[in-house]
Design brief:
8 strands; 2 domains; alpha/beta; globular; Rossmann fold
Amino acid sequence: MKKLRQIVNDIKALAPEDSNELGRLLWLYICYSPKMPLRLAQEQLLQNAEKNSLKVNDEYFAGKELQFNTFKWGNGSNKLLLTHGWGSKAVDFSELIEALSTIKNLEIIAFDAPGNGSSEGDLSNLLLFKQAVKAIALHYGKPDVVIGHSLGAMANIIALREMQITPSLLISLTPLVRLKENFEASMDALNIPPVNQKAFLESFNAKFGVPASRFTLDNWYNFDAQLNHWLAFDSNDVVSPYTYLEKFLANHPFIKINNYEGAGHDKAIKSPVIITGIIEAVNSALN
């Protein structure tokens, strides 16, 4: 978090005419994922995990393969994958992992995405999250249940589509719906002028070969009513506004939606009522 604060301070201290340096700092601001220390309960949870590391290729930032860390609890025949959101890590799901551990015959797999938590990488992006999900499915086997939070929910949908996997249950918690608009909101928070925002989005297109607007749930979601998709949101979410989600849900009315007002965006993964709903959905899907 200290590094992110420094990036923000550097942006605020820039002279208005220094557009090149602002462009460089905006890449750091958008793509640096802040690291938060482990709590005692999280450390204890990791002590009980079976640890491993896998690799993905980061062609856009590091220009090399990056190791990312995976964690597994249980050895059941039903595999469950947890994908965390931006600025997060596997054990931020600690309360949910503890609750899931009460389900019989379950193998719980979580990971720190490249550039997040304990994994290698200075910067991160949605594509690295997606590659990590695919690497885990290839290494551990097809997951029966896939749970994702925020950016992780979007990464799950893209990875499942590319691998042509339809899990028994997909759970999306306060999913990010539109990446471009998320970038714009982050830049608006620092009062970045429209001309500089436009320049950043153009540089994104140049680096990745596609515009940020390509990364919306609707552009990647090709599932139908055969998918058991359970989605939790807060209609007052300011990170992933309901106005975006509402349009997505209108195109996919078979998704089971659950509005938890007051849950918030980041804290949704810790909400006791949401965790209870998740456990019920997982038990129903696997039994």
